Amino acid sequence: MAVEKEDSRKKQIEALIKSVDFTQQLLEYSSATNYTDVLTSEQNLLVAQLSGVNDNLQKLQAVVDLYRALGGGWK
Fold first, then answer.
1. How sure is the predictor about 74, in pLDDT bands with cuts at 50, 70 and 90?
2. How many CB atoms sit inside 10 A of residue 67's CB?
3. Helix, strand, coil tally for the chain in percent (to 5)
4. What is the pTM of this model?
5. What is the DSSP letter of 34?
6. What's the whole-number mean pLDDT along residues 4-19?
7. What average pLDDT does the segment 24-45 reach?
8. For 39-73, what is the HEC assignment?
């Protein structure tokens, strides 16, 4: 399940990177958008990246918790 979540998050981040690039290009070459749209797409990307970091933290925390539960290392 964690691997599927990680793959899904990577795909989401890749799509949002493309979204930021397309929005920036649209702003540069057209008047059909404004800078607020660029900022919104960048904010969405940042939220997804932070969620990916949190997912990784939870995965590492689960390993630490397992190690502790099995009687590992610290008092």
1. low
2. 12
3. 85, 0, 15
4. 0.81
5. -
6. 94
7. 93
8. HHHHHHHHHHHHHHHHHHHHHHHHHHHHHHHCCCC
| Contact of 43 with 19, CB cutoff 8 Å | no
Backbone angles phi, psi at 54, to 5 degrees: -65, -40
Q: How far is CA 59 from CA 19, 43, 67, 74, in A?
A: 28, 24, 13, 20
**Residue 55: C-alpha distances to residues 10, 16, 41, 52, 65 (Å):** 11, 18, 21, 5, 15
Q: Which amino acid is at 58?
A: Q
In the chain, the amino acid numbered 49 is Q
pLDDT at 73: 67
